[in-house]
Amino acid sequence: MRAVTSLTNPTVKAVRALHLRKDRDETGLFLAEGLKHVTEGVELGHAPRILMYGPEAASHPLLRKAADATRRAGGEVIEVTQEILAKVSRRDNPQAVVGVFPQVYRPLSEIDPKAADCWVALHRVRDPGNLGTIVRTADAAGCGGVILVGECCDPYSVEAVRATMGSVFAVPLSRCGEAEFAAWRKGWPGSVVGTLLSATHSHASADYRKPALILMGNEQQGLTPEMAALPDLNVKIPMRGRADSLNLSVATGIMIYAATS
User: Fold this and answer.
1) What are the chain's domains?
2) Residue 121: its pLDDT value, please?
3) Is the distance from CB of 118 to CB of 142 less than 8 angstroms?
4) Rounded Cα–Cα distance for residues 79 and 54 (Å)
């Protein structure tokens, strides 16, 4: 391992650049902050390419484990200053450990629907906080994976990864275009259930024939007419108060647990 103290160090600049989608796309890497998140990745077989830590974390046994995994995989372990951690994280009170990991996407052709009772597909989700929370919820409920359809926000953005609370390493992610998803969905062995404001069936009474695939639209428009034609059944979550809609991550969580109950 080596120590870096300069804010202009090329590695520091490269890690900080991972806040930009352009740099994440070009490198295939992403940033995970905090010893808990980094440890989660290591325990699930994801070795960091770069592991940065502050002096206060140097003696932590979990850091030593992460450092060993990084070195075994040919990665770099670097001790840095508090100022560098703040610059890399773009936070005044940064985490003491930061890891840079490879992004992982699973092709639709490699998905085994029967590996889990419930799966989630999201069409054009825009908010990284919502996406990260959905990934975390999918992990908590034991879903098989999350499929991103069309132009979605980046699940490996710093904001989305933070919202997953480490579940980004546990939940397989896939991405595809609308036409590819529509063709692939035809072979789904269970039920495909979407949500639609104009639906007449309640989410609570739907037939979630396992494995169930939950299809959710984006925050503003919901499912487009083309996507709404793909489910076996579209349902709605009843609104009993003054609010006429739910946050996407909340609605998806309700649907996931309805399908897995």
Assistant:
1) 2-102 (3.30.1330.30), 108-260 (3.40.1280.10)
2) 98
3) yes
4) 6
| Residue 88 φ then ψ, to 5° | -65, -40
Which contiguous run of DSSP H or E holds residue 138? helix 128-141
The answer to whether the beta carbons of residues 101 and 69 sit under 8 Å apart is no
Distance CA 249, CA 227 (A): 19
- Upstream peptide bond of 211 is cis (omega within 30 degrees of 0): yes
Residue 187, number of CB atoms within 10 A of its CB: 8
Alpha helix ranges (H) inside 176-247: 178-185, 225-228
pLDDT the model gives residue 196: 92
Cα–Cα distance for residue pair 125/130, rounded to 1 Å: 8
Planar angle of CA 65, 140, 146, nearest 5 degrees: 95
Q: What is the pLDDT of residues 58-98, one digit of tens each?
A: 999 999 999 999 999 999 999 999 999 999 999 989 999 99
Q: pLDDT-based confidence at 244, cuts 50/70/90?
A: confident
Q: What would the mean pLDDT of 201-215 be, rounded to a whole number?
A: 95
- For residues 169 and 210, the answer to whether their CB atoms sit within 8 Å is no
Region 186-191 average pLDDT? 97
Cβ neighbours of residue 10 under 8 Å, at least 6 residues apart?
Answer: none
Q: Which two tokens stand for residue 45?
A: 């077989």
Give, in degrees to the nearest 5, the angle at Cα 200 between 232 and 230. 25
Closest CA relative to residue 211, chosen from 128, 113, 127, 101: 113
